Amino acid sequence: MQRFYSVCNRLDAILILNLQVTKIVHLILDTFVDNLKTNSWMDEQTKRKAVEKARNILLVVGYPEWYKNTGFIETMYSQVTTKT
Q1: What is the pTM of this model?
Q2: Which residues neighbour 59 within 8 Å (Cβ) at sequence distance 6 or greater?
Q3: Is 82 part of a structural domain of the chain?
Q4: Is-contact 68 11, C-beta < 8 A?
Q5: Which domain range does residue 51 map to?
Q6: Which DSSP letter does residue 70 get?
Q7: Angle CA 81–3–67, to nearest 5
C-alpha cells in the first residue's frame, strides 16, 4: 500500500508542476503582449497582428505519456535503492 501512495504522490507532483509551469508561461506571454502594445517602434496595425499572433500560440507544457504508467515507472526504478 505504501508503494502505491508513493507512486501516486510522484504523479500528483508532476501534475502540480505542470500546472505551475503553465501558469508561469501564461504570465510571460501576457507580459510579452503588454510590451507589444506599448512599444514605440511598431505601427498600430503591426502591433495588432503581433498581439493576435501571440494570442494564437498553442501552449503545450507537458510530460511523457509514460508518467501515467505506474508499471513502467516501477520497472524503471526497480533497481534504485534509497536509504530510509
Answers
A1: 0.59
A2: 22, 25, 26, 29
A3: no
A4: yes
A5: 2-76
A6: H
A7: 85
